[in-house]
UniProtKB/TrEMBL annotation:
NCBIfam families: PRK13055.1, PRK13337.1, YegS/Rv2252/BmrU family lipid kinase. The keyword Endoplasmic reticulum does not apply. It comes from Aquibacillus rhizosphaerae. Its EC number is 2.7.1.107. Its cofactor is Mg(2+). Belongs to the diacylglycerol/lipid kinase family. This is Diacylglycerol kinase. GO terms for molecular function: ATP-dependent diacylglycerol kinase activity. Keywords: ATP-binding, Kinase, Lipid biosynthesis, Lipid metabolism, Magnesium, Metal-binding, Nucleotide-binding, Phospholipid biosynthesis, Phospholipid metabolism, Transferase. It comes from the Bacteria. InterPro entries: ATP-NAD_kinase_N, Diacylglycerol/lipid_kinase, Diacylglycerol_kinase_cat_dom, Lipid_Phosphate_FormReg, NAD/diacylglycerol_kinase_sf, YegS/DAGK_C. Residues 1-131 form the DAGKc domain.
Length: 305
């Protein structure tokens, strides 16, 4: 019998998952799974719970929560050889990763996808000793997400980030960086750099339009020093995926990226504080097996050709 461990964050998003849990469990049981549940209690707990699930040799781990919960679960399984398959039930405030792999926010539709057993092995990133599935980066702007109080996020959702972003715009300062990517070098003053694994981040659904999650490459996006007017122009271009041609943007794809800064710069890993730079980024090709909808396959094949 297949065994699934459901790791869920009871505080995620609008806290809807718990009510649905008995129905979700019943559906897994009916589909032939022996199921058990872990409700996370604090930051880091999902990582520990996922580690334990690997030790107990679960076939499947289901992460029910937002991007934070998925990131923690991935950090619990990524280092291990016998990695379980990963199911996603997106019930968070930010569900960028679920959107990137075409998983709907409806709990039961997300369960349908897991139970339909369609698997795809996708890339993840590692920076220093942390793993990420969406994006990592640095620069003043990326410090947003942990400045937004979680209460505000629960009430306002995505809007909370935009409000905070507008408030921070005037305080953006450039930083001098040296970035090595697959043996080549970039050196300049920048506003921010992003190392993307998926194409959809923080409401910008076309930030890295060509990003594939199966090619073992990151999309590296750098915004050079820009004034407020340039910044607003590029942000509005980015909303429709038309920013890559802009002269203030440097864009390339690479498997390994090393970032050094002269001043202290914080690293953001999947929306959370990830320590200070320098950062040594490696793309781990097709490292995690996920349950994905058939539509995702079609989409990715179209992208590949
Ligand atoms: N019981 C808990 N109480 C408080 N925080 C928790 C609990 N369980 C997990 N967490 C933390 O909450 C963080 C955010 O969770 P998650 O991403 O699942 O939800 P979210 O609603 O999208 O939240 P956010 O938008 O704040 O990132 C997780 O990274 C985890 O560290």
């Amino acid at each position: 019998m297949k065994r699934a461990r459901i790791i869920y964050n009871p505080t995620s998003g609008r806290e809807l998952f718990k009510k649905e849990l008995p129905n979700v469990l019943e559906r897994f049981e009916k589909a032939g799974y022996e199921t058990s549940v872990h409700a996370t209690t604090a930051t880091g707990d999902a990582t520990e719970a996922a580690r334990v699930a690997v030790e107990r040799e679960f076939d499947v781990v289901v992460a029910a929560g937002g991007d934070g919960t998925i990131n923690e679960v991935i950090n619990g399984i990524a280092e291990r050889d016998n990695r379980p398959k990963l199911g996603i039930i997106p019930v968070g405030t930010t569900n960028d990763f679920a959107r990137a792999i075409s998983i709907p926010r409806n709990i039961h539709k997300a369960v349908d996808i897991i139970l339909s057993d369609n698997i795809r092995a996708l890339d993840i990133g590692r920076v220093n000793d942390q793993y990420f599935m969406n994006i990592a980066g640095g620069g003043k702007l990326t410090e947003l997400s942990y400045e937004v109080p979680s209460k505000l996020k629960t009430v306002l959702g995505q809007l909370a980030y935009y409000l905070k972003g507008i408030e921070m715009l005037p305080s953006l300062r450039p930083t001098k960086v040296k970035i090595e990517y697959d043996g080549e070098f970039f050196e300049d003053e920048i506003m921010l750099f992003l190392v993307a694994n998926t194409n959809s981040v923080g409401g910008f659904e076309k930030l890295a339009p060509a990003a594939s999650m199966e090619d073992g490459l990151f999309d590296l996006l750098i915004l050079r020093k820009a004034n407020l007017a340039e910044f607003v122009r590029i942000a509005s271009l980015a909303l429709r995926g038309a920013h890559l041609e802009d002269e203030r943007i440097f864009y390339t794809r690479a498997k390994r990226i090393i970032v050094h800064t002269e001043e202290k710069m914080q690293l953001n890993v999947d929306g959370e504080f990830g320590g200070l730079l320098p950062g040594d980024f490696t793309n781990l090709r097709q490292h995690i097996e996920y349950f994905v909808p058939i539509e995702f396959e079609k989409y990715n094949e179209k992208e590949d050709s």
